[in-house]
């Protein structure tokens, strides 16, 4: 049965089932993919479409098979390397200072896909001198098939792309024919398990998804609908211990206002921190810092090449354009301010950081002003066009938002799908094209609803 033969109502029923069970938002662009996946399942099960719909509502394994056909897990070792630099240089010392030297780190890779992120963390902790007994490393995903692949720890060369991954020693990642095998000690260290982030199964003592020091949930929230994002943000917050950190992906939506996080700006984008409250004992009030030590601005590792603009400016001069109140009232801005004396930063990266900071503070107009400066320097920055679209949409400037998303599609679409985009910290062009098209479709739906 082709897409044209399959009624739109039938495709809509399957789409609604996926969204209801997972929170994944599906648009008209996914109709052909859903039709193909449904045809595959009907052949595999010998079921009619109506029978398939009924079975999908009660058969978890069949639903998992459907998800494997309509989602494409994408990850690789040391993806977004600045995140791992931040973990080693800021998160680990901060948690050690807060909890003491005997504390066992509790870490979750949420939406772990094929397991590359979880094994990267295991390797990072060993590089940082932390014994396996000093960390409890968890990894969850909604796809049981992906979890099965993750437990095997065998990967193609595509998962090992990038300078940081290619530099891993044989004792970490051994080549075997066309594949790379993760060392057995790392496979034993990671506990992979099924968890639907859209569900209510966490925080949970069953899988130790509670009192976590660090959660990585990167490039997951971008695929979810607004209601599910709000639900997941609060549950991830509740799953953190006071003083814990949540690291999202650079393309994920902002979580400000969805849970009482403190946002901190890092070289890899925004990181969310759960404040430490004051403790009261029988002997009186014990003063505990409300936040962990402020993270220093970490320059990229010397071995990682960065694309730099031909137009540069002094970081101190560029920083002077940030409103004084913004610098005085936000510790994140102070982190940037403290870095300018040590190194001259790429003006494009700094302007983008300023825009993110303004977005975090709710000053969308000022954020747009910074982004427009960026586009004046380089009008081909697809990530900046996409971010403008998000801001215009929030300001209800639908026409401007549509134009920005189309510009993002135009510039990212002119590149190979797997080419990494400037300022995206590791996101490929094809993913941004898909995300921008989804946003355009959502705007069309809003216009249709208001008509």
List descriptors:
about 450 residues, alpha/beta, Rossmann fold, Serine Threonine Protein Phosphatase 5, Tetratricopeptide repeat, 3 domains, seven-stranded mixed beta sheet, three-stranded antiparallel beta sheet, 18 helices, about 45% helix, globular
Structure description:
The protein has 18 helices and 12 strands. It has 451 residues and is an alpha/beta fold. The chain folds into 3 domains: 63 residues, no CATH class; 206 residues, Vaccinia Virus protein VP39 (Rossmann fold, 3-Layer(aba) Sandwich); 136 residues, Alpha Horseshoe (Serine Threonine Protein Phosphatase 5, Tetratricopeptide repeat). α16 packs parallel to α18. The longest helix has 22 residues. It starts with 7 loop residues before the first helix and ends with a helix. About 15% of the residues have low confidence.
